[in-house]
């Protein structure tokens, strides 16, 4: 009789652990796998396809560390990510295209920085507006 009670407790514990792992995994995607919510999600070959095909709007900045224009918008891009902290319908990401040339090629990126917008797995195209937080937010809100 005591063994049945232990078995039931173990089953309940296993169920709770599985639920917590699922919750943590979803939270990890939204937080960029490192750091807290509101950080820029770093895309690489192992997470790129699943991320850009997600059921949300995602803006992806393709950049190179040596690019002056890229470094100029690095702070505002992080501010944009912070502005959407806690909003599961928007992801702000970036690809180091110098390191992951195959991803830049897949997205037809020819120069840096290039910002692409995806929604529910479909590419909406290259962002052409001003490179400011208010302009990016207006673009996101118009396409949500």
UniProtKB/TrEMBL annotation:
GO annotation terms (biological process): protein folding
Cellular component terms (Gene Ontology): endoplasmic reticulum
Keywords on record: Membrane, Transmembrane, Transmembrane helix
Protein name, UniProt field: Thioredoxin domain-containing protein
GO molecular function annotation: protein disulfide isomerase activity
Membrane-crossing segments per the record: 6-24
Source species of the chain: viral metagenome
Keyword rRNA processing: no
Zinc as UniProt keyword: no
SUPFAM superfamilies noted in UniProt: Thioredoxin-like
Lineage of the organism: unclassified sequences, metagenomes, organismal metagenomes
Domain Thioredoxin: 38-144
């Amino acid at each position: 009789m005591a063994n049945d009670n232990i078995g039931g407790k173990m089953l309940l514990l296993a169920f709770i652990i599985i639920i917590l792992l699922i919750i943590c995994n979803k939270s990890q995607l939204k937080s960029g796998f490192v750091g807290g919510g509101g950080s820029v999600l770093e895309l690489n070959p192992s997470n790129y396809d699943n991320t850009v095909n997600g059921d949300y709007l995602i803006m992806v900045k393709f950049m190179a560390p040596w690019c002056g224009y890229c470094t100029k918008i690095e702070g505002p891009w992080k501010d944009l990510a912070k502005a959407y902290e806690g909003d599961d319908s928007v992801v702000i990401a970036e690809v180091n295209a110098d390191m992951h040339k195959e991803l830049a090629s897949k997205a037809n990126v020819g120069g840096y920085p290039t910002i692409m917008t995806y929604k529910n797995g479909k590419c909406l195209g290259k962002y052409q507006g001003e490179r400011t937080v208010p302009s990016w937010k207006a673009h996101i809100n118009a396409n949500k």
